[in-house]
Amino acid sequence: MKRRILSLLLVFVFLFGSMGISNAAESFGVTSMDNSQLRIDSVAYGSNVRVMVEKGTEKYFYSMNNTQEYIPLQLGDGVYTVKLLKNIEGNKYQVLGKSEMNVSQWNENVYLTSSQPVYWANQSLMPVLANALFHGTETDYQKVVKAYNHITNNIKYDYDKINYINDSYIPSIDETITSGQGICYDYSALFAGLMRSQGIPTKLVKGYATGVDVYHAWNEVYVNGSWMIIDTTFDAAYYQNDMTVKMAKSELDYQKVREY
Questions:
Q1: Any idea what DSSP says for residue 119?
Q2: Where are the beta strands (DSSP E) in the chain?
Q3: Which site in 3, 5, 62, 85 is 20 to 30 Å from 211, CA atoms measured?
Q4: What is the rounded radius of gyration, in angstroms, for the C-alpha atoms of the chain?
Q5: For 137-157, what is each residue's pLDDT tens digit?
């Protein structure tokens, strides 16, 4: 039973090939917002347009689904290079614009922002759910438990969704609440959004986990003075099959590749 449940935990993978980059000039705007996130403005957007944020050896890719997107600054102080990329064929990308941003007073509130892939401030149903869940709740830990219990008991895994979304997909927290289902990316965005709305720093993390044989998404939440690993997708499969599991996970079972 355990192996069957774990084998069904399909996850969403962002696939970015090696970039063959050609040059093209097209201006776009990059603005630092309180040294915790970047606002990207451009008339070039769509499923074939990406934003690449590079600092040192780290590279992060983001979707450009609208003329304005907010990108987290999670890599600390230093020079961030931002490129707007358009996929022209296969793994070949064209540079539509490039900008550099020097961050000298990094704001650790990045894990409270409403930015990709955790857009929570522009949702209408999430605050309603948050008010219902957290009314009368006093401590951050109690809020973590209430959000965790709600998600693991009420959000179902959507086994078909992976077949009709592409690599420009960004979770919609309201949609997850409305449908009551999603993939790991949706689970972790919902949990992070609920926590951030309460002023509790929370990361959406991608990488690999023991018992999950594909790329995965989970959360780290800052509570009681330290970061706690929580995997609502993994645990929902247990709870919804009348099995129990511990909420707090061991870092030995998780290999972080990206955090947002």
A1: -
A2: 20-23, 29-33, 37-41, 46-55, 58-64, 68-72, 78-89, 92-103, 156-157, 181-182, 202-209, 212-223, 226-230, 254-259
A3: 62
A4: 18
A5: 989 999 999 999 999 999 999
Contact 51, 117 (CB under 8 A): no
**CB neighbourhood size of 31 (10 A):** 13
pTM for this model (two decimals):
0.88
User: For residue 26, what pLDDT is reported?
Assistant: 55
User: Using CA atoms, how far apart are residues 29 and 21, in angstroms rounded to an integer?
Assistant: 20
CATH number of the domain encompassing residue 122: 3.10.620.30
Domain housing 100: 20-107
Instruction: Return the closest-CA partner of residue 38 out of 12, 8, 75, 2.
Output: 75
Q: Which amino acid would we find at residue 95?
A: V
Nearest-angstrom CA–CA distance, 202 and 195:
6
CB 125 within 8 A of CB 197: no
- What six digits make up the tokens of 243? 């099995």
